[in-house]
Amino acid sequence: MTQGAVEQQLADQASSTKTSTKYVYFFGGGSADGNGKMKEVLGGKGAGLAEMTNAGLPVPPGFTIQTEACREYMRGAVDAGVDTEMLSALHRLEKLQGQKLGAGENPLLVSVRSGAKFSMPGMMDTILNLGLNDKAVEALAKRSNNPRFAYDSYRRLIQMFGDVVLDVPKKKFEHIFDAIKHREGVKFDYELKPEALQEIIVEYKKLVKKETKKDFPQDPLDQLVQARDAVFRSWQNDRAKTYRRINHIDDWLGTAVNVQAMVFGNLGENSGTGVGFTRNPATGERVFFGEYLMNAQGEDVVSGVRTPLPISELERVMPTVYDHLRAITWKMEKHYRDMQDFEFTIQDGKLYMLQTRNGKRTGLAAVRVAIDMVREGLISQEEAVFRVEPNQLYDFLVPRLDEKGANVEVLATGLPASPGAAVGQIVFSAEDAVKHHTNGSYPVIILVRGETTPEDIAGMEVAAGILTSRGGMTSHAAVVTRGMGKCCVAGAGDCVVDEAKKELRVKGKIYKQGDWISLDGTTGRVIEGKLKTIPAQPDDADLVKFMSWVDPLRRLKVRANADIPRDAKQARLFGAEGIGLCRTEHMFFAEDRIEHMRTMILAENEKDRRDALKKLLPMQRADFVGLFKSMESLPVTIRLLDPPLHEFLPQRDDLLVQIARLEETKPRSPKLKELRTLLARVEDLHETNPMLGLRGCRLGIAFPEITEMHARAIFEAAVNVKNHGGEPHVEVMVPLIGSIDEMRNQASIIRRVADQVFKEKGVTVDYMVGTMIELPRAALTADQIAEEAEFFSFGTNDLTQTTYGISRDDINKFLPAYLKAGIFKQDPFATLDQSGVGTLVKMATAKGRNTRPTLKVGICGEHGGDPESVKFCHKIGLNYVSCSPFRLLTARLAAAQAALEEKQGGLVHTNK
Ligand code: ADP
Ligand code: MG
Ligand code: MG
């Protein structure tokens, strides 16, 4: 199609409809139609360009096609107004520049840039030098008196346009380019002679023809329309969709398209391009930070082809430009009242600004910048609280990978199950982990498993990081490591874990026991070899100061899930105001206890069971003494035995193998008889669906002596601590209650034992009896249950499982499909399903408080450490959230933000 024909067609379409929406916003000539607040309409980039233009900064002029056009494109019908307004904006730009797009002696060239409300890597790459064709390139060569520059610009256009608009594989362009570069014997792109570049252009065009069966479009307007539509389409590509899903960005926002007059950094040694930050984005330090390249264009700086120079070097070679850049970026920082991330180009010694936005930063930097800006008078303390995303505080608590200058080869990407980093030697079983830890042969261990089970606990304890090939965000590995504050990459499906051969196979490579790998639990990456790490800084002075601003703001209390005194101490360090969940069963997995636990379970009558329980009692009591002591007068919620008993028993298959072996070798061994009895009991206890079987309060109802022992251990410990000057506050929690009758049954045992102990010792201790609400029936009858229960704690893991009827251990089989189909926006086990499970929580809280106005209500599932879920808990008026110690800072900040948002009238802040 000729240029005239396209223009005519667009005009025809346009005249057929009228509309009131303004689709295109111009910027240039000293002012802009839009401004910096219009991110929703203009996208972040477009809003930034408008704002900078209005502020009188040197920005190449252009126009932004607003996001509504993209939404219309997605719906299948773009209003004709889009084309009309685009054409008139183009004419206005041509007039302002005194040039014509891709035509005449001095052709106008433009860039076409995507830009949504939130900055989104994964969307379309920018196209530069659009408008060039076979004729315009000659004009450009003549006009600039620089053929190398002109041909370089054209070959870049064909390559970028070919790649992002026409879907010609990038590799094929690179192949042609590298071959000619190699033949010419040059190292850098800019050393190529004009003739060589011309040859590349010929080859590129042949490639386009071959791949698309069409010539590279010569009509500049045709190029523009195609590029614009490609930007719209890129909103829907898989990379962009995935990014939005992970970051909870609405799929219907759409992207804007920015069309902007080109300025050239590749004109020669007096030109260049660069990027920078007004402060250091890794540390937050107030130093000018950036990189640039002379004689380069666009993405050259970040592409790694040439090594960019530090911005300080620019100060030396072009002091005036440097000073100008500093002055401008300072001004922008002051204007936006936040650290800026900017892009610039120098054309023949003149500086142009191409982008500015609030810079992304690490958690460390976020805290530091927030504090500095308050000190500098740029922002208020309350604003500072919103400058840090709750999840970012994790950065202070865990080590990170130091990737500076490192060769990072990603072997696989799994789920970021537990943040932090670990660099160590791999082992494939818990036993090997313990062995190599004990004999000191591996200083740092990474445990690699298909998935982990409670039996791996000892190995997980000594490992610095865990990698699994199966399992989701709430798999055993994920939950346990998050509790330990250890890094975990879970469900890395590309990793083949051969536990028998002790081999990890991935990306065609084989890693054996003792080989080094690096894990990044924050991104889910599994990385080849031995990277360096940066240690955790939980007592960082800036962090302490920041938290001192945060805490007075919140209404929600924050507690920790902690099972042993060590975790409790850690939790207090991170600000826990109590223990919201102590899972007693975790105490029983320890080496010296599991035997007694097994005997207890295997007992065939009450007497034997009581004998075994007697042995467990002093151990439990000692644990509770430790917990109460470390929490001083803060409340401690202890949950009675919860899991299905078979979790404590040996695996049926293992027993069968052992028995078969003995039958062959020592058929008369007494051990054989023992094993057969064990097997029979294991088979007895077998359940088709253990999650819905003999567990929770059902255990304590079937075997009241278990509840009695627990209660005795708890109250004796409490009395003991009180006798030593302590002031324990005990909350006994009955798990998996579904009816008031179950609650009555268990509460009466607990209260009876309490009375007995208090009478025996002559001391009374403050205590409450409550329940975990984790079954829909409990929520539905919460008013009745509250007659007996003095507190509720929502076990939202199980409540999600039972409300949805989804097993959290199996969700991974279909979660990807659900996410892809948009049925789930996120894993409901990671972020609370507010409309379903949340409604139950809200309703049960109201019903419970109706019966008992003083009812204390909290939440203790994985959701207690998820910012969105914490904010929800604040909104519905819970008393506290409880989370793993390492999520405490996050929960504290989220709770404070929720309270502030409420105070400011529902204003929702975002740093995205
Ligand atoms: P991203 O969103 O990936 O940052 P941009 O649209 O900002 O993509 O474009 C990337 C780079 O392309 C810019 O940093 C700049 O170097 C270059 N660029 C974009 N538009 C122009 C232009 N009009 N003139 C010169 N260079 C440009
Ligand atoms: Mg950019
Ligand atoms: Mg439960």
For the structure shown, list the relevant keywords.
single chain, 912 residues, alpha/beta, 35 helices, 32 strands, elongated, binds magnesium ion
Average per-residue pLDDT, rounded, comes to 91
Helix content: 40-55%
Tell me, briefly, the overall form: elongated
User: Between the first and last Cα atoms, what is the distance in angstroms?
Assistant: 42 Å
How many helices in DSSP terms?
35
Q: Per DSSP, what share of the residues sits in E-state strands of 2 or more residues?
A: 15-25%
The structure class reads: alpha/beta
Compute the gyration radius: what is it?
Answer: 33 Å
Task: Name the ligand types.
Answer: adenosine-5'-diphosphate, magnesium ion
Spans where pLDDT lies below 50 across 5 or more residues = none
Describe the model:
With 912 residues, the protein is α/β, with parallel strands linked by helices. Helix content is 46%, strand content 17%. The chain is built from 35 helices and 32 strands. The protein has an eight-stranded mixed sheet. It has an eight-stranded parallel barrel with strand order 25-26-27-28-29-30-31-32, surrounded by eight helices. A hairpin with a 2-residue loop joins strand 20 and strand 21 (509-512). Helix 22 (591-602) packs antiparallel against helix 23 (606-631). One magnesium ion binds at residues 343, 355.
